[in-house]
Amino acid sequence: xxxxxxxxxxxxxxxxxxxxxxxxxxxxxxxxxxxxxxxxxxxxxxxxxxxxxxxxxxxxxxxxxxxxxxxxxxxxxxxxxxxxxxxxxxxxxxxxxxxxxxxxxxxxxxxxxxxxxxxxxxxxxxxxxxxxxxxxxxxxxxxxxxxxxxxxxxxxxxxxxxxxxxxxxxxxxxxxxxxxxxxxxxxxxxxxxxxxxxxxxxxxxxxxxxxxxxxxxxxxxxxxxxxxxxxxxxxxxxxxxxxxxxxxxxxxxxxxxxxxxxxxxxxxxxx
Length: 271
What we know:
Layout: H1 2-6, E1 11-14, H2 23-33, E2 36-47, E3 50-57, H3 64-89, H4 97-101, H5 112-121, H6 128-133, H7 152-161, E4 165-168, H8 186-199, E5 203-207, H9 213-226, E6 229-232, H10 253-262
Parallel strand pairs: 1-2, 4-5, 5-6
Antiparallel strand pairs: 2-3, 3-4
């Protein structure tokens, strides 16, 4: 939140993976810094067996369905995390479970970023991004391990049930799974997004560092077709992680107003 303030932001959302544990600390920091806090979460989800992400703004953190789905994902993330450390540690000297856990913050989400930081510290890779592109990549059959996640349809249902606003995160990147597969026609892609709109999808994270320029154009057109909210995002992961700072891609005021109006699960903490 201090980094966000230093970048000139006045409204910030925290959307940690599969947890709302950071809300209180973020809320207090925003109040101290004079920023508006928008509570959120980023659900791990699946499309045709591939991993995708769904943002849920203003969800109720006590909702039973949200707690059940996020709990199952977090539990499986623990098994996946330790399995990947064991696989990589068999080939990388010094990559022990205790060492990797030293890069983890209590209450945070266990995932590949923590392993990546450990690999950087050991000098195995130069950057976190390099770790994700090579050792931790989903197509690295030797080391990569998947984890439980609901379908994108189920994730949308959960966010809606929790009074939140579901927004498809970075839906058109060059190297992540999405609905925009190259084997589909424009009409088929539009129809797939339309089917999710019928399930309650409210928006698309168009302005994201990893969406391709062509993808942003197509997503903007899809959003116009279905009257979807368009959001921005830094997807900031903290110091030493992705080289993108808060404020890199912002959300237009009129789009934020739509989120503020639609969300009923948790209140915005206005500055």
